[in-house]
Amino acid sequence: MSNELETKTLLEMQRRMLRIRYFDERASKMLKRGLIPGALHTSIGQEAQVVGACMALGDADYMTGNHRSHGHPIGKGSPLGPLMAELVGKATGICKGKGGSLHLADFSLGSLGESGIVGGNIPIALGAGLSSKVLGNDRVVLSFFGDGAANQGSLYESMNMAGVWKLPVVFLCENNHYALSTPAHTVTSGRIVDRAAGFGIPGVRVENGQNVLAVYEAVRDAVDRARRGEGPTLIEVMTYRFREHSEGLKLGVDYRDADEKEQWLQRDPIAIMREWLIAEGWATADELDALDNEVLDEVEAAYQFADSSPYPDASVAFEDLYTEVAGAGR
Amino acid sequence: MSIMTYLGAIGAAQREALTADERVVLIGEDVEANVYGTTGGTGKSRAAEGDFLQTFGRNRIRNTPISEESIVGAAAGAAMTGLRPIVDLSYSSFLYMAMDQFVNQVAKNRYMFGGQASMPVVFRSAMFYGLNTGAHHSDRPYPMFMNVPGLKIIAPASPSDAKGLLRSAIDSDDPVLSFEACPLWGMKEEVQDDEYFIPLGVGRTLREGSDVTIVAISGGVIEATAAADALAAEGVTAEVFDPRTLVPLDVDGIIKAVEKTGRLVIVDPAHRTCGAAAEVSALVAEHAFSSLKAPIVRLTAPDMQIPFSPALEKQMYPKRDGIAAAVRTMLGLAGAAA
After folding, report:
1. Would you call A217 helix, strand, or coil by DSSP?
2. So what's the ipTM on this one?
3. Which domain holds residue B33?
4. How far is B165 from chain A (nearest CA, A)?
């Protein structure tokens, strides 16, 4: 990579992390004000893990994700306006208002959809990998799932099939240590990454999942390997969500240790990257402040776009179930 | 035209589709060895290499591990990204292993993502009922999938329908479940050799009649026509109608068939409650109530599990004698039937 290209890539990483942060902060406020209906799961605190992985993909590569869903398409480069409009339920939403926060998808960028069913998205990624292999189109698939989904059978069926067929799939476990309120270690036997060995595929753990470059490098290696036809990799990225499982959720007991939480909050992926960019001379504080403002403006524009868009016509609820409806049904 | 079995017709439709379109792939358990006789020529069953594998190669004909959840989900993901998979799930009872993928991914993804995805995939399975395979292999589970918007369902009851409907299913950009009746596997008839497509949602009339209408589904069709032929010898004419596909359902065809006679018997080998027969009954009650001269009669499997012993199982599904007897009762000819 040339110096200029490298600078561009590094700043793009920071830009996308900021997009996730500010988008989710804005969405959270909108939820509180009643502007967003339904449930909302933010990726705040996990930006490095999302963006580091997405930046290792090309635009044509595929991705599937889960209920913690906004970060994935943003990380893949999806424009914010249609995503925000989807959260609000507007006609201009990326899914025409039929998916909502939990089910974002942007097929124009290979984002094949986020799944509200934990573990349900993993076989979809497997299938996209099968497509790539059969059609020989060189596309790689990234499957995001959490430590909770790591205890679903769908993961192991899919790792087995991807392994035996040498499909270009990267299984990426976003280990944020909790499945809602349940600490991963209380329901997970052994280390998730070690399960790769059982399928004869590489397993890589990124201990510093708050460092976007560490995630990027691990995923890039797995993507390169997949593109060479050498098959799947399981990557476990250690991270933490800074907020509640879903916005507005108030539980009687605090299931997370205060010290643990405080230690993780000190490891803000955006602050870490900012300090590093300045210290290594990739950008100045002023340039990064300007980037901050640019992204804040983008989020504001996304809000305005969503706010000013119309709600869908009621008839839209009855479209898109099938591509064609044959026959004479009533 | 040539004489073809129901099983051979399923193979022929798949061969045509695999030949016509390179995006068509076939995945499933034991498909490479043509274990069930649908993934190769007839007579090659259990060959070391079924001839689909020889013709189309291992890239497109793939044996899978026994992992239904991921097979079904992978087919959905492949369909969303450019392939047109045919999935051979062998026994219909195995579909439950993949219920989450069917209901939450296959059926919902296109809708939930605002039409960004199409889902051109076919899931084939065989209903091994009436063959003494016990409760774990005998299911006829199409009614529960009729309750899932987003899926299409075909239930061919003859070799020519099996070929033409399956071909349309593979050609469809929507997910289609094909429920194939094992009791019909050996059924033979003249089938067109060239490509043809039977549209989904259009039923067929097998017998014309004026006294009673029998709407029959899947393996119930052959029993209904046999009953109609027996009744004809007694001077009773029955209209026999096979909807052929359950989603979309040829409601107009059913209503017209019922209005012709004013009497309806429904023959359905699946379970009774919330079943296909229940749905047909409700539609007729809604749309053709004024033409009915008698209460609707449903002949279905009872709400009971399927026992193993032939002595126990043989009574579980509607058969020609019971259908004829029900018609006689409906027409007030019960004394003659006894």
Report:
1. helix
2. 0.95
3. 2-191
4. 12
What is the C-alpha end-to-end distance of chain A, expressed in Å? 61
Give the C-alpha separation, B21 to A234, whole Å: 34
Degrees (nearest 5) of the Cα angle A73, B68, A232? 50
Q: What is the pLDDT of residues A14-54, one digit of tens each?
A: 999 999 999 999 999 999 999 999 999 999 999 999 999 99
Q: Is B137 a catalytic residue?
A: yes
| A321 lies in some domain | no
Task: Give the CA radius of gyration of chain A.
Answer: 20
End residue of a domain, out of B140, B158, B191:
B191
Q: pLDDT digits over A105-140, tens only?
A: 999 999 999 999 999 999 999 999 999 999 999 999
In a domain, residue A330? The reply is: no
Total domains, chain B: 2
Q: Which listed residue (B136, B137, B271, B287) is catalytic?
A: B137
**Side chain identity at residue B201, one-letter code:** G
Token pair of B289 as six digits? 């109530």
Pick from B162, B191, B220: which residue ends a domain? Answer: B191
Report the pLDDT averaged over residues B228-247. Answer: 98
* Cβ–Cβ under 8 Å, residues B55 and B116: no
Given B78, B105, B248, which is nearest A326 (Cβ)? B248
Measured CA to CA, the distance from residue B132 to residue B203 in angstroms comes to: 30
The verdict on residue A79 lying in a domain is yes
- One domain for residues B67 and B168: yes
Distance from the B250 Cα atom to the nearest Cα atom in chain A, whole angstroms:
5
